[in-house]
Amino acid sequence: MFAVLIDQFWSLTIAGIALGFIYVLISLGYTMVYGVLRMINFANSEIFMWGTFGTVITSRDIFHYTQTSEPATGGKLALVLVTSLFMSMLVAGLTAVFVEFVAYRRLRMKGTNRLATLISAIGISIALQEVMRLLTDSRPVGSPRVLEKIILTEVWGANVRLDTVITIIAAALIFFVLERFIKLSRMGKAIRAVSMNEDAAKLMGVNLNRVITTTFLVGGLATGAAGFFYITVFEYTKFNIGFTMGMAAFTAAVLGGIGNIRGAFYGGLSLGLLEVYASAVLGTQWKAVTVFIVLVLVLLFKPNGLFGEAVQTTRA
After folding, report:
1. Separation in Å, CA 239 to CA 51, 52, 231, 301
2. Residue 27 belongs to what domain range?
3. Could you tell me which InterPro entries the record lists for this protein (predicted)?
C-alpha cells in the first residue's frame, strides 16, 4: 500500500507543496475576513472560481491562445503570465468587494445578527456559482497551455517542472508581501486595530467601512492569485470547482487557526502534503474524504487550530 509513497516520495512532496501554496492563498480569503468580522466568507470559494476564469479568459480571448497553439516563450510568455495573474487577481478582488457590498455591508449597517449575514453569504455564493454555470452551460472549461511544462532539474529522483517552481516561488512571494502589508502598512495597522477592538478603533478615527472593504479586497486578490496558479498547474476549471478547493482551503485555515495569517500558511502547506500523500496511498477518490476527516479531527480535538493562540492576541 505504501510502495507508491516510498518510491515517489519526493515527487509527491513537491506536488504537495505546490498544492499547499494554492491552499494558503485561498485560505487567506477566509482568514482575513474572519480576523476582522468574526464571520466566515462562504463566498470565497466562488471568488476563487471566478479568478480561475479570469486566467482562462485572458489567455484564450485576449491573447487568442487555443488548445492547439504552441506554448509561448521569452518575453511573450512573461507578458501572458503576468497579465493573466493580474486579471485573475483583479476579477477575484472586484468580486470580493461586490460580495462585501451586497452580502455584508447593508446587513451590518442595520445591526442584524450573525445568522442573517451567514445566510446572506451563502446566498451570494450560490448566485455567483449559478451565474457561471449559465455562462458555461455547466461544461468544464480547459485552459490553453501557454506555459510549456518543461522539466528544469531532478531532485532526489523527482522531476521538478517549471510550472511547479513558478507556483511555489510566486505564491510564497505573494504571501510574504501580504504579510508585510498587514504588519507594516498604515492600512494593515488599521486592519489589526479593528480586529483587536472594533469600538476602540472607531474612537481612534479608523474608517470601519474602508478597512472592511480593503480586507475583502486583499483576501480576494490573494484568492485570485491562487486561481491563476491552479490554472497554470492543472489547466482546467468548472463552475463548481470552488466547492472542492474552497472546502480544502477552509480546512487549512481552521487547521492553522482561522484568523491567523501565519496559521493559514502552515495549515495550507500541511494539508496540501497530507492530501497528496493520502491520494498516493489510498487513491485519488480519497482526496475529499481526507480533507473532511482532517476538518472533523481539528474541530474535535483542537478547534482553535495549531496557532489559535495568536487569534486571541492579534486576531489577524
Report:
1. 11, 10, 14, 34
2. 3-313
3. ABC_BtuC-like (IPR037294), ABC_transp_permease (IPR001851), BCAA_transport_permease (IPR052157)
DSSP state, 315? -
Which whole number is the average pLDDT over 130-135?
95
Residue 118: CATH number of its domain: 1.10.3470
CB 307 within 8 A of CB 252: no
212: CB partners within 8 A, 6+ apart: 36, 37, 100, 104, 105, 108, 194
The count of domains in the chain is: 1
Share of the chain above pLDDT 70, in %: 97
Q: Where are the strands (E) in the chain, listed by range?
A: 141-142, 151-155, 158-161, 236-237
pLDDT band (50, 70, 90) for residue 310? very low
Query: Would you tell me how many other CB atoms lie within 10 Å of the CB of residue 51?
Result: 36
Residue 272's φ and ψ, nearest 5 degrees, are -60, -45
pTM: 0.92
Report how far residue 220's alpha carbon sits from residue 309's, in angstroms, rounded to the nearest whole number.
Answer: 25
